[in-house]
Amino acid sequence: MDMNPWGAMVDWLLEPLAFEFMQRGLLIAAVVGIICALVGCYIVLRGMAFLGDALAHAILPGLAVGYLVSAGDRGTLFWWALGTAVVTSVGIGALSRGVRIKQDTAIGIVFAGMFALGIALISTVRNYAVDLTHFLFGNVLGVTRADLWLTAGVGVAVLVIIFFFYKEFLVLSFDPTLVTTLRLPARTLEVLLSILMAVAIVVSLQTVGVALVVALLVTPAAAASLVTKNLRSMMFLASVIAAGSGVIGLYASYYLNVASGAAIVLTCTFFFILIWFGKSVMRKVKGLPVNN
Q1: Residues 6+ apart with CB under 8 A from 142
Q2: Closest C-alpha to 171, from 231, 219, 233, 218
Q3: CATH of the domain at 85
Q4: Other CB atoms within 10 A of residue 41 CB
Q5: Which of 51, 109, 205, 209 lies in the 20 to 30 Å Cα band around 37?
Q6: Contact predicate 152/31, CB 8 Å
Q7: pLDDT for 231-262, tens place per residue?
Q8: CB of 271 closer than 8 Å to CB of 50
């Protein structure tokens, strides 16, 4: 006798939840997705994807030093990585303003130097290879309760900052010239936004890793930007896409036996392609230019 398809679907959904590591993984994937989506909207609107990629790789020295001084303690690694990301973001801003160097050039210089320093430090520790793989590609199923609480606390802090500076970030993203006209502290806002980016990158390490973190920051926000130009709507839709991708990606990882970080990012990419294709089809039906 055939099994009830609804019952089979419920069993399919509930089976992974029998494991505590999957429960924690699903929670942190959703939380990290929301954090990255909110910050990612500003990244997409301001064209800061290259800076995000640079920061993701520039934290490698911080991870290496944190590992050396703490023997791999995750809490210590988090704060060393965060400190390195913040210093790097502030340093890039100072370098591009202090002399006649364009920002993308400053980003390239700092990115290459910090990444090379990280590789040099890592090469001095032979037993670091396994942990390095986790940082490069993520290990969301290795999340502990402490990791979950730390990520939740950081997420609340990011939400509070975005809430209080929403209007200022909005002006900075859509009309940088108006920032000067309104006499807003443009440099301070840029630094604060870079710090939020650094925080989002560091909290994403456990979920998708250094190699894939930029995709989690950019792809959901880019997909949402295809649907709406209203920032509030864009943030909401990007958060839904990112959190949903985290959950769906983890289920795919569980049943298909693939890397969890890669599964999450591929799910994000799938949603982006689906929305892009749907938007293109709709514009063709309406007789509008696809690239406009």
Answers
A1: 21, 134, 206
A2: 231
A3: 1.10.3470.10
A4: 28
A5: 109
A6: yes
A7: 999 999 999 999 999 999 999 988 888 888 88
A8: no
Is position 22 within any domain? Answer: no
Instruction: Confirm whether 137 is domain-assigned.
Output: yes
Is 209 in contact with 100 (CB distance < 8 Å)?
no
Q: What one-character-per-residue DSSP string does 9-77 give? A: HHHHHHTGGGSHHHHHHHHHHHHHHHHHHHHHHHHHHHT-HHHHHHHHHHTHHHHHHHHHHHTT-HHHH
Question: Lowest-pLDDT range, 66-75, 79-88, 171-180?
Answer: 66-75
Contact call for residues 216 and 32 (beta carbons, < 8 A):
yes
Alpha-carbon distance values, 263 to 23, 178, 233, 255, 266 (Å)? 17, 41, 26, 11, 5
Selection from 169, 12, 191 nearest residue 88 by Cα = 191
The one-letter amino acid code at 265 reads V
Written as one letter, the residue type at 10 is V
| Residue the block writes with tokens 């839709």 | 237
Q: Is residue 226 part of a domain?
A: yes
How many distinct structural domains can be found in the chain? 1
Domain hosting 252: range is 27-286
Output the six-digit token pair for 43. 């990244």
Q: What pLDDT digit, counting tens, does each position of 149-200 carry?
A: 888 888 899 999 999 999 888 888 887 777 777 787 877 888 888 888 888 8
Alpha-carbon torsion angle 64, 68, 71, 76, nearest 10: -60
